[in-house]
């Protein structure tokens, strides 16, 4: 399927916060109740529409476990957007946000759009981090913010599309040199694209796995 733009995303945050579940809910509209520990990096893709244009999101879901940290750092580089995820029912995953941000600032391009996500908002009875705390952290660090549930699908669609809208806005404002793919943005070809005729063969949704 042709697209106007391709945006590369990375999903980061502590192990068990629900990164893979957010991706699965977004690409397959399913919830995985068992923790399937990500080894290295997994990959997913989906098309969305912004401003009547087809945008392909190519999403790298990283492993949160400390031992994979050096592998996942390699994926920051070419990302236009990041979902930085914590678990609202586990305080320590919120406390570690500063260290994730430090990694992002060090290894990503400075124009990367970061969406802070307080996931598992269906677990209200076990909430350990208030919505206000999430909002404050986001404001102080120049991030966008949303609470989601990969289980009920609440705000999952919005988290991915709002991030894309911000990236799209930056393109319109001339922030990116879109011919330079190191910003994590690629101009498409074919009908519906901004890059002229040709067309690319792409499945509208796909997932696969890779390590390293
Ligand atoms: N109640 C609830 N559970 C969730 C939600 N999202 C994920 N989980 C559960 O949390 C556990 C971990 O989810 P994963 O998506 O595998 O976590 P991860 O962040 O990918 O973990 P790593 O791959 O180790 O970094 C699983 O048992 C999920 O079922 C949510 O929104 N609500
Ligand atoms: Mg995972």
From TrEMBL:
The record's GO molecular-function terms, alphabetically, read: GTP binding; GTPase activity
The superkingdom listed in its UniProt entry is Eukaryota
UniProt keyword Ribosomal protein present = no
- Please provide the record's keywords in A-Z order: GTP-binding, Lipoprotein, Membrane, Nucleotide-binding, Prenylation
Task: Tell whether Cell wall biogenesis/degradation is among the UniProt keywords.
Answer: no
Return the Gly residues bias intervals: 190-201
Q: What are the coiled-coil residue ranges?
A: none
SMART domains associated with the record: RAB, RAN, RAS, RHO
User: What InterPro entries does this protein map onto?
Assistant: P-loop_NTPase (IPR027417), Rab_GTPases_membrane_traffic (IPR050209), Small_GTP-bd (IPR005225), Small_GTPase (IPR001806)
Name one cellular component (GO) term.
Answer: endomembrane system
Please note every region of biased composition (Low complexity).
202-212
Coarse class of the protein's main subcellular location:
membrane
Residue ranges of region Disordered?
A: 190-212
Record PROSITE patterns: RAB, RAS, RHO
Recorded hits in Pfam families, A to Z, give: Ras
Topology with respect to the bilayer: Lipid-anchor
Subcellular location field: Endomembrane system
Q: Which family does it belong to?
A: Belongs to the small GTPase superfamily. Rab family.
NCBIfam families of this UniProt entry?
A: small_GTP
Return the PANTHER family for the record.
Answer: DRAB11-RELATED
- Give the protein's recorded name: Uncharacterized protein
């Amino acid at each position: 399927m042709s697209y106007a733009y391709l945006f590369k995303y990375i999903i980061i945050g502590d192990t068990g916060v629900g990164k893979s579940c957010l991706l699965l809910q977004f690409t397959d509209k399913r919830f995985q109740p068992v923790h399937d520990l990500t080894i290295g990096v997994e990959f997913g893709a989906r098309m969305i529409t912004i401003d009547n244009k087809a945008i392909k999101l190519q999403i790298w879901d990283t492993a949160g476990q400390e031992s994979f940290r050096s592998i996942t750092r390699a994926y920051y580089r070419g990302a236009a957007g990041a979902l930085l995820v914590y678990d609202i029912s586990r305080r320590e995953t919120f406390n570690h946000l500063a260290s994730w941000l430090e990694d992002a600032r060090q290894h990503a391009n400075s124009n990367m759009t970061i969406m802070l996500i307080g996931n598992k908002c269906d677990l209200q009875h076990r909430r350990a981090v208030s919505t206000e705390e999430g909002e404050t952290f986001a404001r102080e660090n120049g991030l966008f913010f949303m609470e989601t549930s990969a289980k009920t699908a609440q705000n999952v669609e919005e988290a991915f599309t709002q991030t894309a809208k911000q990236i799209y806005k930056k393109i319109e404002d001339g922030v990116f040199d879109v011919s330079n793919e190191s910003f994590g943005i690629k101009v498409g070809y074919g009908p519906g694209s901004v890059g002229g005729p040709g067309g690319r063969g792409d499945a509208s949704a796909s997932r696969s796995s890779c390590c390293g």
